[in-house]
Amino acid sequence: MWSVDEHLADILEAVRPLEPIELQLHDAQGCVLVEDVMVEIALPPFDNSSMDGYAVRVADIEGADEEFPAVLTVIGDVAAGSDGLPGDRAVGPGEAARIMTGAPLPAGAEAVVPVEWTDGGTGGGPADTMRSLSDAPEGAGGEVRVHRPVEARAHVRARGSDVKPGDLALSAGSVVGPPQIGLLAAIGRSTVKVRPRPRVVVISTGSELVQPGEELTGGRIYDSNSFALTAAAKDAGAIAYRVGAVTDDADTLRATIEDQLIRADIVVTTGGVSVGAYDVVKEALSSVGDEDEPGSGIDFRRLAMQPGKPQGFGSIGPDHTPLLALPGNPVSSYISFELFVRPVIRALMGLPDVNRPTVQAVLDTDKALTSPSGRRQFLRGTYDAEAGTVTPVGGAGSHLIGALARADALIVLPEDVTSAEPGTDTEVILLR
Amino acid sequence: MWSVDEHLADILEAVRPLEPIELQLHDAQGCVLVEDVMVEIALPPFDNSSMDGYAVRVADIEGADEEFPAVLTVIGDVAAGSDGLPGDRAVGPGEAARIMTGAPLPAGAEAVVPVEWTDGGTGGGPADTMRSLSDAPEGAGGEVRVHRPVEARAHVRARGSDVKPGDLALSAGSVVGPPQIGLLAAIGRSTVKVRPRPRVVVISTGSELVQPGEELTGGRIYDSNSFALTAAAKDAGAIAYRVGAVTDDADTLRATIEDQLIRADIVVTTGGVSVGAYDVVKEALSSVGDEDEPGSGIDFRRLAMQPGKPQGFGSIGPDHTPLLALPGNPVSSYISFELFVRPVIRALMGLPDVNRPTVQAVLDTDKALTSPSGRRQFLRGTYDAEAGTVTPVGGAGSHLIGALARADALIVLPEDVTSAEPGTDTEVILLR
């Protein structure tokens, strides 16, 4: 018998993060950087205006107010995207240039006066907006009255005030989320080196399995594991492929797995790992894998847990692709996925936290929960963060998928616990 | 001036959840159900074995122990997927059938004895496994010694003990996650009716914008908004399309938006909404939209917030597609997205919680933070859940995208706060 912790440690010991690849920014979302990204340009790349207004020389507007405005000659527009005034002109004494947010401060100018502190070139009172260039092209010329003085560098964002060449933009190990993608784009990076999302192939086994939507005949049930685990793999960050249920025939299963290896970073099977006479995964995989290679081949184990006792783990094929063979009961396979496969996916991605978060909660139940001695039990529950309580949902049966769909947490009863009274402080694994 | 809350309320008031569609299970992941899903079959569909073992009549094994085992004639196998014993045979007195986990309890049998409580048909001591059918076909015949009695119905999962026809499987409003997908598949549903993911078209505007990876010439900057907001839209649950930056030309922008409407449930633009003479979004969209229709057309507003003062909101085109025109500074546009666009995406999906979670935290800073009177300020910070503190990152400048990429929270300083001392209890919006 292996403990849950021993089994997980054995798996994680064998799994190496995927080789990094260079990806376009939009493909890198959610992935882990493997390089320190250094900044190669200044941000902003040039001194620029933080307001829509007028670029001026400060001496010209000293002491200006509404009664005695400074009157300046407007010599042109500096639009965002231009590199200064037309014809490389500079702002001279008594002159101003209309400037837009983000546009470069033109030569000669020392500060920006927001349009709201001027008459906007209208000859009237304080402006609350600039007239758009297309409606009023004459706004780029004529005169402007400035109603307030500003200090040098006012409303100017200095070149490099955000980041400078040689700065560390993002360190290796960072997860690439939306703001990180924004920063990478802003410093001109169109690609980054990250560990890719693992490709997970999910195969359910069992001659009793029928695809949902088809007719259910005697002795058969609908395949649910391949659907639930494919969704869970996506949820964990993987690219997941669902392979239809395979019948209980060792040759067919072996051929299917070998076929799928080309697109698999992990193979997950469900069913056929127990002690029965038709346990096809065990039969098919005990004789597969290049046993010459250390760590190759699949090892079938009994785990000191409930549900989920029978489990297989190993590697398969020329690339030693990790394979996890999970039990076939829907609840067992889902819990096994959360405990063992999710950590593998996240380890392959190079993420630091591979496990679901856990909390302590007070057991909210009418009667004591029982648990088999020497086995770690995982019961389904609903967690109430505000009350700090967890309430069991449904019973312990590993076929109770109706209750699983109402749960958002797993209640963990340790190996040495055989009975947990109402009010007991309990470990809870959060599933959302 | 609109308050942040008024603007958001105005937006959410105008937005209706998307019309539901029938989707395959794997496409429905993360979506909200609009139907109560009722169960139409029993789960399990038939009485079945929860163990690998032998299906027996209880009277035959009464009082059995290892010394005096009950010796039964094995009359055949019941495999999972079969609908009983071959030839519709029943288990008669003195007989047993080998049975696999999940296989239907054959006629005549009353309970299942796990293989570990028998000799497994070997004639030896207690078995720890069944020999696989292919290795030992004779296991389906001969004799089995049973070492322990069981009660009627032992190790039998009763038909309908999980869910029954007429039960409510999932209620309208449920989010379809992996366990819900598992349940839907298990009850035979291959499709469900959900609200689809909204399609968000992100367009950045500005003649100064260059695509990352290209050469940066005078007065130009890299387009980062379209990258960051497309990623943020995906993160919020949307299908997001990034449209390359559009130059500051109203006709081009109008044509681009009209072109994109075919694939848009929301249009998001950045830049060109302020008071400048080149504010193309304002210019292009103030004259678009069928103003005959109530609520149509785009309204440009000033919000009592920092950053993010200028904002546009309205609907556009024949389908009255919501359009949010965000300011162009990278930090302003990102914060505006989180505050206004994310809630729209989630409202379109029919999710109950449209806003990011907020917490209270103690301000961990050396000197007081300042904030303009009458405006709600959103500063970037890092939140420490264990310590219950939040630490500002970088300054207030709306161009500081380097600091944004290191933040995981927004520090909210209310309208009436002009200074927040170290140690102040502060509202924090969690970004992860």
What does this 3D model show about the protein?
Helix content of chain A is 19%, strand content 29%. Chain A has 432 residues and is an alpha/beta fold. Chain A has four domains: 4-18 and 197-349, MoaB/Mog-like domain (Molybdenum Cofactor Biosythetic Enzyme, Chain A); 21-43 and 162-195, Molybdopterin biosynthesis moea protein, domain 2 (Alpha-Beta Complex); 48-157, Molybdopterin biosynthesis moea protein, domain 3 (Molybdopterin biosynthesis moeA protein, domain 3, Beta Complex); 358-430, Beta Barrel (Beta-clip), CATH 2.40.340. In chain A, strands 16-13-17-21-20-18 form a six-stranded mixed β-sheet, with helices on both faces. In chain A, helix 5 runs parallel beside helix 8 and helix 6 (250-260) packs across helix 7. Chain A is elongated, with a radius of gyration of 33 Å. Chain A starts with a helix and ends with a strand. Chains A and B meet through helix 4, strand 15, helix 5 and helix 9 of A and helix 3, strand 15, helix 4 and helix 8 of B.
